[in-house]
Amino acid sequence: MKKAKAIAVFEIKRIFKKPRSYILMFGMPLLFTFIFGGIFSGGTDDKPNIAVIDRDQSTLSQSLVKELENKKIMNMRIESAEKARSEFEDQKITGYIRIDEGFEEQMLRKEVPKVVFVHSPSFNGATMIEQVINDSMVKLRIGAEAASVYQDMTGGDWKGVQKEIAKGLSEASEGIKNVTVTKSKELASMNNMTAFSAGFTIMFVMIAMLISTGVFLEARQTGVWYRMMSAPVSRKEILLGYLGAFFLIGWIQFGVLMLISTFVFDVYWGNVLGNFVLVSSLLLCIIGLGLFIAGFVQTSEQQTAFGNLIIVSTCMLAGVYWPVEVMPDFMQKMAMFVPQYWGLEGFAELSGRGGTVVDVLLPSAVLLVFTAIFLIVGMSRIRFDRG
């Protein structure tokens, strides 16, 4: 075991002697997390910013605005038409809602007034906001009709009744308690920054491991492996030394990135023991994948070229660059056959759903199955002689 330990220490020192290793292992994943997380997170508040143009300035138009505010699904503010259009063109707001003149008159005539919602084609939440507007208008029309009937029967002011109805509906909505069921009090959902941090950490650990496992092919190309086999050290000790080095290098990279992202990006990783089990299983799988690829190529250059292609494409499929849910159904099923998917599922359990080690047993077990397949096939194909 001393010889295996010496090989592991030597390999770790060799990797960290190269300045570019620090850029690839730590700089790139943090940069990608910052860029993608910043783009898609939109800050700590993920609600769209919507301006409201109220041209009618009537009791019913103001009631509609109040009803939309009570939904609390968007950040709303009243703006002039000119300012709203300018901010939308400059992409300072997601869109704007325009209530035209005559809104109240049409409502009282039991007509359906038109409310315009302007947004960019890329805004995914448009359908939800349109539905909320329609639902609010139906509720408002019912209240307006009730107030109108009251006025006809009693001769009282319908506007006062309308305000009371709107107030009653608002209080009824506030009486509903929204409870998110999670396994932890710390976090209710896996936010974008956490998801990107986990995804890009996995991707760049895979790339770093790909380079590390290429040492087998380098040893074969240069004849180093043959000389090592001639030395008084067994093949088992050599393999254990290298595999131990790869595992420790992976944990150093993962650990440092998790620590930095916690303080810099406020990423919550969840249960410590759960993360230890999941990351260890994931690293073994990544090492196995590197050796699997090494078994089908002849040189370390070929391994880097084909390996990077495989890693980037499978990361896309697994949901590193975008959520799996936005992909077609057949691609979502395909994603379950790549290791990164199960790694992200495990991190979602821990950081998003507040799970414990029990909750990552399934993802970890699947990763270990991948590991076994990769190692068996890869080690059976790698040739360590000089030929």
From TrEMBL:
Q: Which gene carries the instructions for this protein?
A: yfiN_2
Instruction: Name the chain's protein.
Output: Transport permease YfiN
Membrane topology according to the record:
Multi-pass membrane protein
Q: Which UniProt keywords apply?
A: Cell membrane, Membrane, Transmembrane, Transmembrane helix, Transport
Q: One of this protein's Pfam families, by short name? A: ABC2_membrane_3
The UniProt entry's sequence similarity note says: Belongs to the ABC-2 integral membrane protein family.
- ABC transmembrane type-2 domain boundaries: 159-385
Concerning InterPro entries, the annotation shows:
ABC-2_transporter_component, ABC2_TM, ABC2_TM_bact-type
Segments passing through the bilayer: 21-40, 195-217, 238-260, 272-293, 305-324, 360-379
Q: What is its main location?
A: membrane
Where does the protein end up? Cell membrane
Q: Which organism is it from?
A: Siminovitchia fordii
